[in-house]
Amino acid sequence: MFLDTQKRPPRTLRYVEKAFKEVKSRKNVRDVVILNDRGNPVKSTMDQDDAVQLAGLFQAIRGRLERGMSKIDPTDELLMLRVRTKTNEVILVPDSKITVLVVQNAHDNFEK
Amino acid sequence: MFLDTQKRPPRTLRYVEKAFKEVKSRKNVRDVVILNDRGNPVKSTMDQDDAVQLAGLFQAIRGRLERGMSKIDPTDELLMLRVRTKTNEVILVPDSKITVLVVQNAHDNFEK
C-alpha cells in the first residue's frame, strides 16, 4: 500500500539466493535457473539467452501439463518435472514463490 | 509389399506384451499404457477413455518438448520424462517401436 516493496517482499531475493546456492552446490549440477512467479529467469548460471530459451520451453510444458492434469484430477498438484535426455537431465521444481530449473549431467563422468 | 502384416511385423505384438508384463510387475506400478508409433494406446490397465486422455496429454507434452529440444541441441534425444505430482508419478519412456507410460503411486503405502 505504502511501498512497492510490499508487493514483492525483500525475503524473495534472499530466498532466490539461498535456493540458487543450495542447488548449485550439488554434485553433477551443471546449471541452475531460478524463475520468478511470472516465469522469467531472475538468477542463472547460464547466459541470459540460453536461460530464457530453457525457461520458455519448460514453462510452456509445465503450463500444458497443469492444464491437462486439472482435467484428470483438479485436486492434484505438480511437484516435479524431470526430463532425461542423452546428454543431460533437466529438473523443474515449482515452489510457492519461485521455480527452480536444474540441468544435471547425464553421466557422472561426463565432464570429469 | 505382399502382406499388410509386413508393415507391422508380428514381433510388435509380442514386444508390446513383453513390455507390458515387465512394467506391470514392478512394485508401486498402478497403471501401464503402451502406445504404438502413432501415439495411440494399444494395451493398457486403464479403461480406454482414461488411457486416451493420459496418452494424449503426454504425447502433446513430449511433442512440445522434442520440438523445443531440437532448437537447443538437435543431436540430443529424449530418454525419459517423469512427472511427479502429489498423488502419483507418471513416467514416459520412448522406444523405437512403442512408448511406455507408467503411473506409479506417489507413496509406497498409498494403497497398501
Summarize the structure in words:
Two copies of one chain form a homodimer. The N and C termini of chain A lie far apart (52 Å). Chain A has a five-stranded antiparallel β-sheet, with helices on both faces. Helices cover 35% and strands 29% of the residues of chain A. Chain A has 112 residues and is an alpha+beta fold. Chain A has one domain: Beta-Lactamase. Chain A contains two helices and five strands; from the N terminus they run αββαβββ. The interface between A and B is medium-sized, with 27 and 27 residues.
Low-pLDDT stretches of chain A are none
Shape of chain A: globular
Our estimate of the beta-strand percent of chain A is 25-35%
The proportion of residues forming helix of chain A, as a percent range, comes to: 25-40%
The profile of the biggest β sheet of chain A is: 5 strands, antiparallel
Strand order of the largest sheet of chain A: 2-1-5-4-3
Can you lay out the helices and strands and say which pair or pack?
2 copies of one chain form a homodimer.
Chain A (H helix, E strand, L loop, with lengths): L10 H14 L4 E7 L5 E4 L3 H25 L5 E8 L2 E7 L4 E7 L7
Antiparallel strand pairs in A: 1-2, 1-5, 3-4, 4-5
